[in-house]
Amino acid sequence: MKKIKGLKSLLASAVCATLFVIQPAAIACTALHLKSKDNGVVVGRTMEFGVDVQSDVVVVPAGTKLTSSLPNKADGIHYTTKYGIVGANFMNKEMLVDGINEKGMYVGALYLPGYASYPKGTNKNAAKSMAPEDYVAWLLGNFKNVAEVKANYNKVILVQNPQKEIGGQSFPGHFLITDKSGATIVIEPTDNTLKLFNNPLGVLTNSPTFDWHMTNLSNYINLSATNVKPLNLTGTEIKTFGQGSGLVGLPGDYTPPSRFVRAVAFSQSAPQQATAKETVPQVFHIMNAFDIPYGVIQDRHKDGIHYDYTVWTSVSDLKNLKYAFNTYKDMTIRSIDVHKALKTAGNKIKVIEMDSKQPIKDISTQFK
User: Fold this and answer.
1) In this structure, what DSSP letter does residue 366 have?
2) What is the mean pLDDT of residues 87-105?
3) What does the domain layout of the chain look like in residue ranges?
4) 3-state class of 281 per DSSP?
5) Closest by CA position to 217, among listed 184, 180, 171, 263
6) Residues 81, 62: contact at Cβ < 8 Å?
7) Mind listing the pLDDT tens digit for each residue in 231-288?
8) Helix, strand or coil for residue 163?
9) Helix, strand, or coil here: 34?
10) What is the DSSP string of 54-108?
């Protein structure tokens, strides 16, 4: 069994180099899921930052001992994972921001600036304390479905873990959990406590809080994937200019509220595929609609301009236990079989490189 030592948090470490340095641009993650006719569930998620976060896929076998990221290792929970995990890290750290476990449960951490808050760690709560950036691995390593998470999510206390590189802040995130039945919840650390929301639509973006986004949907109930019929005004027929008239008014900017509305519209209108395998490329296509090209979001600072962009996109097949991804530098879809990866890893943590260069194939003479 491999013990992960010195958990200077994946998230906090990445955040030190990126998130807070380029705030507020780097807050554009989007997540959603689709269901297939064979009872499959496929979750898609984008990761946006102002620099390359140097993510790799980490394979964490069941039986791995994980230690706290809190400064005093005697404070905070130490545990051994019950379930194997495959997911993406930040800055080559052995901690997860996105992943799937061998029981078909997905967890993703998304940014929640201005709303996330944590109590201070004390001697009284030390045995139950956990740094916010450790929460994804704890959930994936210990629970097999949403029902178990609901029964246990607040048995730990996420406490402040200030990072000097980010002005003494702790990681401000919230968490999307989806299992292979399609059940989905959101856990948000607000008002110094963990709040749980049922998420019937399976969508999450960033600030404000999840309940605000659900209320905001009332402003867009007129939207439809069906084109609007011509309108007769005193004998004059008024027609639309072309396709897509049912979605006139759909917000197209990259703010979290607008992306939330688009994610609901696209996921709810997507035709259901026969299998989860067929749903994987469908989800990748939908996630392309949230792909942020380099340069369209700019945050100006004294040291220059930071450009927020989509660094990578992951798609998790919870039925067939496949974790797939593509990156800004390589749009090729690469897939990892969770069982095969865990079996090959044995009892040691293994890393699969995500960074690669986009192959461009010359087919000039490959005539049909």
Assistant:
1) -
2) 88
3) 3-206+273-353
4) helix
5) 263
6) yes
7) 999 999 999 899 999 999 999 999 999 999 999 999 999 999 999 999 999 999 999 9
8) strand
9) strand
10) --EEEEE-TT-EE---SSSTTSS--EE-SS-EEEE-STT-S--SEEEETTS-EEE
For residue 81, give both structure tokens: 């994972």
Who's near 105: CB < 8 A, 6+ residues apart?
Answer: 139, 140, 143, 144, 145, 146, 149, 177, 178, 179, 180, 318
Residues β-bridged to residue 111? 173
Q: What is the CATH number of domain 3-206+273-353?
A: 3.60.60.10
Per-residue pLDDT band at 3 (split at 50, 70, 90): very low
Query: Global pTM?
Result: 0.90
**String of DSSP letters for 221-259:** TT--SSPPPPEEETTEEE--SSTTGGGTT---S-SHHHH
Model pLDDT for residues 150-194, shown as the tens digit of each residue? 999 999 999 998 865 445 788 889 999 999 999 999 999 999 999
- pLDDT of 11-60, one tens digit each? 333 333 333 343 444 457 999 999 999 999 999 999 987 777 789 999 99
Our measurement of the distance from residue 318's CA atom to the centroid of its chain's CA atoms, rounded to an integer in Å, reads 15
User: From the CB of residue 151, how many other CB atoms can be counted at a distance below 10 Å?
Assistant: 10
**Averaged confidence pLDDT in the chain:** 89
Residue 122 is classified by DSSP as -
- Rounded to whole angstroms, the Cα distance separating 144 from 85 reads 11
Q: How many CB atoms lie within 10 A of CB 144?
A: 17
User: How many residues comprise the chain?
Assistant: 368
Report residue 295 as tokens.
């340069």
